[in-house]
Design brief:
This protein is mainly alpha-helical and about 130 residues long. About 30% of the residues lie in helices and about 10% in strands.
Length: about 130
Amino acid sequence: MIIADSFNLDLLFPTYHVPTRYLDMAGKSNSVIDLMFLQNSLTELNNHSIHPDWRLFLDHAPLMVSIATDEENIDSFRFFIVRDSEEEVSFIKEVMHAIKSIDITDLSDSIKLKEVTNFLASKIEYVWKMNSK
């Protein structure tokens, strides 16, 4: 608890108290050894659940906390190149040209190797941006 306090964390309390560790050994009792901590200012999340029925063959029950979020649309996108398109042909051709044009006659130290790899990486990134949608 001293360490948790030093990080401004509070011990969470489950919605119902059941063991979190289940032992199959004779003479040993089940126990609560799995705990959840949360930042002090987030007390609205102090409602985790213990699910012993989800443990299947494991000896620990999963712990779960529900976090409410605002509904929000997040615009996301990713760039791609259509297979068998002119852009794909151009991309491959230009990357191959970049690879062939690398001067590998003197890679005697890590600085020169880094320069070559940075050149190739920037060339591939440029070619990708030019051909992707």
